[in-house]
From TrEMBL:
InterPro entries: Endo/exonu/phosph_ase_sf. This is Endonuclease. Residues 194-215 are annotated as: Disordered.
């Protein structure tokens, strides 16, 4: 049967008007327990595109008993849902189809690592690189096997570069608005409304503009 206003979180308002049975109540209870939504009651179509079952007795009314239920989380990804009768299937049930459009966020790109020459222009990063390289090299240079010695040197340089890169990364992740600017923003919010405080607001605005430029 058609979904009532109290059950609107379980389906739309375009279901077929019919006598609800115990199976229909159990379906709605299943949707309620598992946070599901009946999508083919949520789109306005002609009645023949809502009906899903043709009873064997011609005196009985066609009705809607086949549904597509989807999690509330993905409810917005369904663009359309309807039933099809003109198919090659020899069945008293219609084919119910839903059109889905998924919008997935792309994988975040790793920030490009700076070349070693540009990285070592920073004195702090250069100092960390030299320190880590000395620790990582150890005895690899004196290894009797050239391949083993080369692999050890390569890993030592990679580890030292990663350690030095973290210095610039921490600086880059800092907030660009300083604490002084935030304090001026909060102070401006505390000024009461009214034209008599326009001068005070104007002075704070000038101070805030200068502070943001310095940031």
């Amino acid at each position: 049967g058609k979904i009532s206003d109290r059950e609107r979180h379980l389906g739309g308002s375009y279901g077929v008007v019919a006598q609800r049975t115990d199976i229909g109540d159990r379906l709605l209870q299943l949707c309620s327990d598992n946070l599901l939504f009946l999508e083919n009651t949520n789109f306005k179509h002609k009645e023949k595109h809502l009906l899903t079952w043709r009873p064997p007795n011609s005196s009985q009314r066609w009705t809607q008993i086949d549904h597509i239920a989807i999690s509330h989380r993905w409810r917005g990804s369904i663009e359309d849902c309807r039933s099809f009768w003109s198919t090659c299937l020899d069945s008293d049930h219609a084919l119910v189809r839903a059109r889905i459009c998924l919008r997935l966020t792309g994988r975040r790109k790793d920030p490009a690592r700076k070349p070693l020459r540009a990285l070592l222009n920073d004195s702090q990063a250069k100092s960390i690189f030299q320190e880590q390289l000395g620790k990582q090299l150890g005895s690899h240079v004196c290894d009797a096997y050239p391949d083993a010695a080369w692999n050890g040197i390569r890993k030592a340089v990679e580890t030292a570069v990663i350690s030095a890169s973290k210095v610039n990364q921490k600086v880059r992740e800092q907030h660009w608005i300083s604490a002084a600017s935030i304090a001026l923003i909060d102070a401006r919010k505390l000024i009461p409304p009214g034209s008599e405080h326009n001068e005070e607001r104007s002075q704070l605005k000038c101070k805030l503009t200068r502070s943001l430029r310095n940031d």
